[in-house]
Write a structure and sequence with these properties.
154 residues; 5 helices; mainly alpha
């Protein structure tokens, strides 16, 4: 996930630099053709990412968080012994992606929703719980791969 964030920051930085370069070239050519009348320059707007803006893969991260919560509960219920691993993965995701308290609460809320939703439904490991685990593992893998492919570094 850190590589997705680093690649996104690099792309935004490159876009910003290209925009500033274009603006400088445009300004230089405009000076050559400027009318005789002098006007006060308009204040330049800064272009760049909003610090609190959610990344384009936010919806996918929320779903992945929810899946990790469900897997944490279901894998523990079915005795797979790795339910704590999903909690640790969620903690790592929060460390990498939650740059504000609001975003942290949003991602943690999705995890808790997944956990509590299955906690309320399943009291013992059933064939349906095993099917849900298999489906969540597949969906989580697809989401992680898509985020990495679309937004991650090379």
């Amino acid at each position: 996930m850190r590589s997705a964030r680093a690649a996104l920051a690099f792309l935004l930085g490159a876009t910003l630099c290209a925009g500033l370069s274009f603006a400088a070239e445009h300004k230089a050519s405009a000076k050559k053709q400027a009318p005789l009348e002098k006007k006060a320059p308009a204040p330049e707007k800064t272009v760049g990412p909003q610090p609190d803006a959610a990344p384009p893969y936010e919806t996918q991260l929320l779903r992945l968080s929810e899946i990790m919560g469900a897997l944490s509960y279901l894998r523990g219920l079915c005795g797979d012994g790795d339910s704590a691993e999903y909690r640790a993965r969620m903690s790592a995701l929060l460390d990498a992606e939650a740059n504000t308290q609001e975003r942290r609460e949003k991602l943690a809320g999705a995890y808790n929703r997944g956990y509590r939703g299955y906690e309320a439904t399943y009291r013992s490991c059933t064939p349906n719980a095993q099917t849900a685990i298999a489906r969540f593992l597949d969906e989580g893998e697809k989401i992680a791969r898509e985020i990495s492919y679309r937004f991650g570094g090379s």
